[in-house]
Amino acid sequence: MLQETGKILGTITGVLIILAAFNYVFKYINRKWGKKIRVDEKKGKQLNSLIKFFSKQHVRFGGVAIVIMIAHVIIQYSWYGISITGIIALIVMGLQLMLGLMLKKKNINRKMILKVHRLLPLLLLVVLAFHPV
C-alpha cells in the first residue's frame, strides 16, 4: 500500500510541475500569437482566462509539487533506497523554489534569474525521463 502511495505521489508531483509550467506556456503563446488569437473575441477571452488562472496558481502548483515530492522521496527511499535521478530532481526543484523566491525581491537581476527559472524545468524533464517509474 505504501509503495503504491509513493508512485501516486510521484505522478501527482509530475502533473503539478506540468501545471506550473503552463504559466510560461500560455504567456509565450500570448506573446507570439496573442494578436491573432484576439481577432476572435471568444478565443481572446479564453486565452486571457487561461493566463490569469495559471499566473495566479503557478506558485501554488510549484509549492504543492515540492511538498508532495518530499513525501514521495521519503516513501520511495524507505522501499528502494536512494535514486540518483530522484535526488537530482529534488535539487532542481529546490533551486526552482529559491529562484522563485528571489524573483519576489525587487533589487535583483530579475532577467537572468527568470531565464534560469524558465530553463530549469527543461532540465527537470530530462532528469525525470530517466527516473524509474
**Total number of beta strands:** 0
Q: How far from one another are the termini? A: 16 Å
Beta content comes to under 5%
Number of domains: 1
What's the mean pLDDT score? 92
Number of helices: 4
Oligomer: single chain
Major sheet size, sense and barrel closure: none
Coarse morphology: globular
Radius of gyration: 17 Å
Helix-strand string? HHHH
Helix content: over 70%
Structural class: mainly alpha
Outline the low-pLDDT stretches: none
Q: Strands, helices and their partners?
A:
Elements: H1 2-37, H2 41-80, H3 84-103, H4 110-129
Helix pairs in contact: 1-2, 2-3, 3-4
Structure overview:
The structure is a single chain. This protein is mostly helical and 133 residues long. The protein has one domain (2-129). It has 4 helices and no strands. It has helices spanning 2-37, 41-80, 84-103, 110-129. The two termini are 16 Å apart. The model has no long low-confidence stretch (mean pLDDT 92).
Quick structural gist:
The protein is an all-alpha fold and 133 residues long. It has helices at residues 2-37, 41-80, 84-103, 110-129. The chain contains 4 helices and no strands.
